[in-house]
């Protein structure tokens, strides 16, 4: 992808993010752009880093294993924070922890326990978002809102985990406004868990919003938005 096209697209997304933050009375700096690079090659990923992107996401372990070493070698001191955003099977956990800094798809206590176990073995601390199925979709992973409090108690006892916050995926719809109730629900759950001492105050990050609905997500409190196609189309 041509550098100038990518730069134009990135600037446009950043402007939209800033405007959404201001509409909500927030500072644009409160929101982190995570560039989802699963559909582009290492060179395009490297160009994004050169343009100032500091957070990169992949959703497949094997693809990341082929691409990320090249990206990291090129990035040097500008190494980005690496996010894993795809469904995660327990037999892939060790490799994911070796490759990534933050895992967004922790959808069960069992998976959290496996991440903790492998992180201890590797003498690393794994950053995690707990995925919540706020929309109640059977095909989507995540904890049910009603089981979140008890699950968090178990997860927070596990060693070598750093809980960043909560994550959700809204149902796909051409109208981004349909996602608003789901983002609002996740933000409310985050406040409820923190105020009730089920989560530490520092675990107040919200990973929600993608290319089609990130502005609504920011208006409802997103701190991390996962942007792919809006950067490349």
Please sum up the structure shown:
Helices cover 43% and strands 16% of the residues.
If you had to describe this structure to a student in words, what would you say it looks like?
The longest helix has 21 residues, at 3-23. Strand 3, helix 4 (93-99) and strand 4 form a beta-alpha-beta unit. Helix 2 (42-50) packs across helix 3 and helix 4 crosses helix 5 (109-122). This protein has helices spanning 3-23, 42-50, 61-75, 93-99, 109-122, 148-156, 180-195, 214-219, 229-232, and strands at 32-36, 55-58, 81-84, 102-106, 126-131, 161-167, 205-207, 224-227. The chain has one domain (3-232): TIM Barrel (Alpha-Beta Barrel). With 233 residues, the protein is α/β, with parallel strands linked by helices. The chain has an eight-stranded parallel beta sheet.
